[in-house]
Design goal:
Strand content: under 5%
Number of helices: 3
Oligomer: single chain
Distance between the termini: 43 Å
Helix content: over 70%
Shape: globular
Number of domains: 1
Radius of gyration: 13 Å
Largest sheet: none
C-alpha cells in the first residue's frame, strides 16, 4: 500500500474506545508514517505532503496526551 494511502486510512480511523495498548500502537504508527512521508518530502518539497504530516502530527499529539495525561501547570 502506498504511504499516502496508509496515512489516509490512519486519519479516518476511529480513535475512541481504545485500550492503552491500542493507543501506543497508534502513536508508533503515526510516527512511522510521518517519518516516511518526511523522507519523500525532503526530495520533492510538495506542499500537500507537509499538510498530511501536520494532520498526522495533530492526531498523534492527541493520542499522546491521552496516554501521558495533561501536564499540570
Amino acid at each position: 500500500m502506498d504511504i499516502l494511502q496508509e496515512a489516509a486510512v490512519f486519519e479516518k480511523a476511529k480513535m475512541s474506545h481504545m485500550t492503552t495498548s491500542d493507543r501506543v500502537t497508534a502513536s508508533r504508527e503515526a510516527k512511522r508514517l510521518v517519518l516516511a512521508i518526511n523522507e519523500i518530502y525532503k526530495k520533492t518539497k510538495e506542499t500537500n505532503l507537509m499538510d498530511v504530516m501536520k494532520r498526522l502530527t495533530v492526531k498523534k499529539k492527541r493520542i499522546d496526551i491521552r496516554l501521558k495525561g495533561r501536564p499540570a501547570s
